[in-house]
Specification:
alpha/beta, seven-stranded parallel beta sheet, ten-stranded mixed beta sheet, Rossmann fold, 17 strands, 16 helices
């Protein structure tokens, strides 16, 4: 079992294309199913620790994987039973089912087991499953001490993370060959406490990947505050938001943070100056953050105009995202990073029924900027189509000010000299790690403070 961080994310169609590309005279559908089923059996045997196993098999290839896994488990001496929701629906599935020499029980009548393996429906599900099957799956899962899903929890849509039929929450989901969008996109991702990748011997390539631990530059013996990275933050009508972002930038590693506007107070390490064209145009500024608490009135628009005129590398957040359009960003702020939440994203780019990865890619292309579409599943996209998705973030981030902390964190990584995409990814990772270290019921000030430990962990 392989950790998913840094691994490619493939849609159902991309996964199928990769499997077809891997096929030769010696590698057939049967071969790939045997590999998948064998990998599942190995993982289940480790996880079950000798406990009796019940494998639920559906009518497609996911069910075929389940039959093969059950046969391998039985051969290894693991107590295992099989229940089916339907007869095998393909030649490859029938071949796989023929390798199981035990009884096949009806799903509706089968008794629970301590370890439940869901191989009913995997990649490619496009409609809700039968209510009776979904209800039975939830009941059997509730009676088990360990629940494992093969590839995906039965009932979720592969590519957009939609929930077509309510599944149980699985302890472990075993992703076959590649991570799928549903493993990291909400709401589907919440039905897996853990996702682990199984190698099935198929080469995987994608311009989308799961967010991984970054490699960040550290100060050398010749470092000084400006070479560490200088961040400037434009204060607005709600100065507290800009102050939060400024503290975050300092604790994320910036060597010098300048808060521009009418503000006062600690920390003393934060440099405060009036906002004017000369100060904001300082060529030593490695990243200029505008938007947190900016406001949306004429004064805010004037401050945003100054920011665009400065020629500095920009991080655009919060209110500023309501005062611009994609064309202006593309023309006036090359290399910018945008950090919208859902409402800000809709205001800037419009609403759509497309999945979150597709929407973020389109937004990055239209704006010419790296877009960080925030949420429980944060998607980061570059104008070239490259994507990273951060899943599994703390639910406690749902409190005021955490977005300001993220913006300041990304400004610090950008000021350090990283590319816009890498800086955005590093900032999102640091933000998530700080939340993990802060524990439950933190406030945004705690989150900003926790960035020091998060940065030190790298």
């Amino acid at each position: 079992m392989i950790a998913v961080e840094g691994r490619p994310i493939l849609t159902a169609a991309e996964m199928r294309a990769a499997e077809i590309a891997a096929m030769t005279a010696d590698v057939t559908v049967d071969t790939l199913m045997a590999r998948a089923g064998g990998a599942v059996a190995t993982a289940v045997r480790r996880l079950a620790a000798g406990g009796p196993v019940l494998v639920l098999c559906g009518p497609g290839n996911n069910g075929g994987d389940g039959y093969i896994a059950a046969a391998r488990l039985k051969a290894a001496g693991v107590p295992v039973r099989v229940a089916a929701s339907a007869a095998p629906g393909s030649d490859a599935f029938r071949t796989a089912a023929a390798g199981w020499d035990g009884p096949v029980e009806a799903l509706g009548d089968v008794a629970p087991a301590p370890v439940l393996v869901d191989a009913l429906f995997g990649t490619g599900l496009s409609r809700p499953i039968d209510d009776a099957v979904a209800t039975r799956l939830r009941d059997l899962a509730a009676a088990a001490r360990l629940t494992i899903a093969v590839d995906l929890p039965s009932g979720v849509s592969t590519d957009d993370g939609a929930v077509l039929s309510l599944p149980p929450v699985f302890d472990v989901v075993l992703a076959l060959g590649a991570v799928k969008p549903a493993h990291v996109l909400q709401p589907a991702a919440r039905y897996a406490r853990s996702v682990r990748l199984l190698d099935i011997g198929v080469a995987m390539d994608s311009d989308a990947a799961v967010l991984d631990r970054p490699s960040l530059p550290t100060p050398g013996p010749d470092a000084q505050k400006y070479t560490r990275g200088m961040v400037a933050v434009v204060a607005g009508s709600m100065a507290g938001a800009a102050e939060l972002a400024s503290v975050a930038a300092m604790r994320a590693g910036a060597g010098y943070v300048l808060l521009l506007g009418k503000t006062a107070g600690p920390p003393h390490a934060l440099v405060r100056k009036p906002l004017d064209a000369k100060t904001i145009g300082d060529t030593r500024i490695g990243a200029l953050l505008v938007g947190p608490g900016l406001g949306r009135d004429d004064e805010a628009r004037a401050k945003l105009d100054l920011a665009f005129a400065s020629g500095r590398l920009m991080v655009i957040d919060g209110d500023a995202l309501h005062l611009v359009d994609p064309a202006r960003i593309a023309a006036r702020a090359p290399g910018a990073i945008l950090t919208p939440h859902g409402g800000e994203f809709d205001a800037l780019f419009g609403k759509s029924d497309a999945d979150k990865i597709a929407r973020t890619r389109d937004a990055a292309r239209r704006s010419g900027a790296v877009v960080v579409f925030k949420g429980a599943d944060t998607v980061i996209a570059s104008p070239t189509g490259r994507v990273c998705v951060a899943g599994g973030t703390s639910d406690w981030l749902s409190t005021a000010g955490t977005g300001d902390v993220l913006a300041g964190t990304i400004a610090a990584t950008r000021a350090s000299g990283m590319t816009p995409f890498d800086a955005a990814c590093a900032g999102v990772w640091l933000h998530g790690e700080a939340a993990r270290r802060a524990g439950p019921a933190f406030i945004a000030d705690d989150l900003a403070d926790a960035l020091t430990a998060a940065r030190a962990s790298l």
